[in-house]
């Protein structure tokens, strides 16, 4: 049985004694936790004991009852207040009502009426506690289901079924960053060609293992990971700095699970509607992409991890991977459809566009962080790729005179 704490505040000891003695506190589930003879002491004791019910005399020294009630409302907003008043103090009734007093007791307090009032307030406390318990239980259930709710929301978003206001509302409710993800990632495992005799249960275990690896690798980045209707593992990443980490999934899966997966990524451009477009583009690219050789995959990942280093060349990467530069160059062009130099430039310009859009770094700092020796060389390369200067891009000017949200550069 709940035991609710009560404070009796009255400057007359005989009144306090009378109230304390005429009530069967135990039968009501109440206990007198404190008594006070002035308003200041009453406030201190009420806060100290965190009382649930305050019996307050209006006419008290040091701090008047009305002021005490105001302070109680501020510091103990859930405390129930019962006013003890004489007939000549009834002019304060209007102010008491404004302060949401729960009930009145006229002096001298009549035991039966006092018991009735206290019982009614006690019942309110019980009802509110039960309501709070139900809300907490519902909240715990929602939190427990957050991963599923996030997955459903993100799939709806990718399918283009949500309005801008619905998206923002759900992002807030599901405790996700209040902006569009920077990147869509996609993982495809061609299990049907690699393990044609695999049982469905075994296949699901492999997929769960891949998802767990991705979650662990990206633990420092805001994200949502789920599977779409086609069974592809989808990663919505709010921090583009996680792209090199995501690219490393292929090597980790190959090392630990001895299977080959393909990872596709697509930068999200524009507003919330751009996410669905990036998802569709990533799916198309991944579906037509032939499985890359381990050497090209390692080279591509190395670029994602070291693009900021000035002097990064095909020869230096080939040396790091213990491969022939000529062979790597030919394989790169054959499998990705573009030269190493073009891929490196596109990667650097894409990263530069992200920095220009999301930071206040100076042009020289952006150039330095994307592997360019000078600001001039960076600006020339940026304009050649995008059609606008870095400064124009930062201001939202894109080719054709449009605002930001158009194409900044072609994705690989």
From TrEMBL:
Q: Which residues form a coiled coil?
A: none
- Report the principal subcellular site: cytoplasm
User: Locate the Response regulatory domain: which residues?
Assistant: 5-122
The chain positions of domain HTH araC/xylS-type read: 297-396
Where does the record place the region Disordered?
393-412
Q: Record's Pfam families? A: HTH_18, Response_reg
One GO cellular component term: cytoplasm
Give the superkingdom in one word: Bacteria
Q: Where does it live in the cell?
A: Cytoplasm
Q: Which UniProt keywords apply?
A: Cytoplasm, DNA-binding, Phosphoprotein, Transcription, Transcription regulation, Two-component regulatory system
Q: Which residues carry this modification: 4-aspartylphosphate?
A: 57
Q: Which InterPro entries match?
A: CheY-like_superfamily, Homeodomain-like_sf, HptR, HTH_AraC, HTH_AraC-typ_CS, Sig_transdc_resp-reg_receiver, Tscrpt_reg_AraC-type_HTH
Its Gene Ontology biological processes? phosphorelay signal transduction system
Instruction: Tell me what this protein is called.
Output: AraC family transcriptional regulator
Q: What is the lineage of its organism?
A: Bacteria, Bacillati, Bacillota, Bacilli, Bacillales
